[in-house]
């Protein structure tokens, strides 16, 4: 891989990243990786705030998948290397490799993004931006982005809860922050279930925006193969987010 087109950052696990069993939270994992994505975009000159200030457009996350052989430990310093794999007309893929304090690879992640016009909420042409397209390496990771994912219909769920989208859920793009969906989904599960398992694969598809003041329902289903399916649904029962977690 062309080292000139990669960015590497370190992250030290903080107390707020740990749950009641002192396990690294899934939300902390996603936050860490998306922060590194933001840092890399900023360092390359096409960060979200620059885009917003210069043209009222911004990045939105569409798909995210991460697979972990092990999760970071308390106070451990991990290293994340990230790069753009490819840039299409409307979509771009950004990948990640995560290493522990000894340099051993403990995980990989892939993410798919678009740039939207914040007024029309429509996607923009990415290929026309030579600054972004010029960063593409063509280098993949051994993690597949989620496909369609199983649709979870009302009545099939193991449990559900309702969430009213509040001020603390909204990010600078004016919609619910991508990490908050994951928090809502995990909060819908019994805490004992989360404490007795750890995530090995997390995959999320962001289908449509959720805005301030909306009330959504969060569904989950425990499957016979040990995975858990999730859906965040709007008032009309359409999916806003679909996700699946594989545990060990």
Can you give a write-up of this model?
With 248 residues, this protein is α+β, with helices and mostly antiparallel strands. The protein folds into two domains: 3-133, Hotdog Thioesterase (Thiol Ester Dehydrase, Chain A), CATH 3.10.129; 159-247, Hotdog Thioesterase (Thiol Ester Dehydrase, Chain A, Roll). The chain is 19% helix and 35% strand. The chain has helices at 26-44, 48-55, 130-133, 178-188, 191-195; strands at 6-12, 57-68, 77-87, 92-99, 105-117, 159-164, 199-206, 215-222, 228-233, 239-247. A ten-stranded antiparallel sheet has the order 1-3-4-5-2-7-10-9-8-6. A hairpin with a 5-residue loop joins strand 9 (228-233) and strand 10 (239-247). Helix 1 (26-44) runs antiparallel to helix 4 (178-188).
Summarize it.
This protein has helices at residues 26-44, 48-55, 130-133, 178-188, 191-195; strands at 6-12, 57-68, 77-87, 92-99, 105-117, 159-164, 199-206, 215-222, 228-233, 239-247.
Please supply descriptive tags for the structure shown above.
single chain; 248 residues; alpha+beta; Thiol Ester Dehydrase, Chain A; 2 domains; ten-stranded antiparallel beta sheet; globular
Give me the secondary-structure topology.
Blueprint: E1 6-12, H1 26-44, H2 48-55, E2 57-68, E3 77-87, E4 92-99, E5 105-117, H3 130-133, E6 159-164, H4 178-188, H5 191-195, E7 199-206, E8 215-222, E9 228-233, E10 239-247
Antiparallel strand pairs: 1-3, 2-5, 2-7, 3-4, 4-5, 6-8, 7-10, 8-9, 9-10
Helix pairs in contact: 1-4
Task: Work out the oligomeric state of the chains in this entry.
Answer: single chain
The low-confidence parts are none
In N-to-C order, the SSE pattern is: EHHEEEEHEHHEEEE
Beta-strand residue fraction: 35-45%
**In CATH's first tier, which class of the largest domain applies?**
Alpha Beta
CATH superfamily of the largest domain: Hotdog Thioesterase
CA radius of gyration is: 18 Å
The CATH architecture of the largest domain can be given as Roll
Number of strands: 10
Biggest sheet statistics: 10 strands, antiparallel
Mean pLDDT: 95
Total helices: the number is 5
Separation of the first and last Cα atoms = 32 Å
């Amino acid at each position: 891989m062309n080292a000139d087109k990669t960015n590497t950052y370190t992250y030290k696990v903080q107390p707020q990243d740990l749950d009641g069993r002192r396990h690294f939270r899934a939300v902390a994992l996603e936050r860490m990786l998306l922060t590194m994505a933001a840092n890399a975009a900023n360092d390359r000159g096409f960060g979200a705030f620059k885009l917003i200030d210069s043209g009222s457009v911004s990045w939105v996350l569409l798909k995210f998948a991460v697979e972990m052989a092990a999760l970071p430990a308390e106070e451990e310093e991990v290293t994340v290397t990230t790069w753009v794999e490819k840039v299409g007309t409307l979509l771009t893929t950004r990948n990640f490799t995560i290493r522990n304090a000894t340099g051993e690879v403990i995980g990989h992640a892939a993410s798919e993004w678009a740039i939207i016009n914040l007024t029309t909420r429509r996607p923009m042409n990415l290929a026309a931006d030579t600054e972004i397209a010029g960063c593409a390496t063509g280098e993949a990771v051994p993690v597949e982005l989620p496909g369609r994912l199983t649709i979870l219909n009302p009545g099939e769920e193991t449990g559900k809860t309702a969430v009213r989208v509040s001020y603390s859920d909204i990010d600078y793009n004016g919609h619910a922050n991508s990490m908050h969906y994951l928090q809502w989904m995990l909060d819908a599960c019994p805490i004992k279930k989360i404490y007795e398992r750890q995530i090995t694969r997390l995959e999320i598809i962001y289908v449509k925006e959720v805005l301030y003041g909306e009330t959504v329902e969060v569904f989950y289903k425990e499957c016979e193969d040990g995975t858990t399916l999730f859906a965040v649904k709007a008032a009309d029962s359409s999916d806003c987010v679909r996700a699946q977690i594989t545990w060990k």
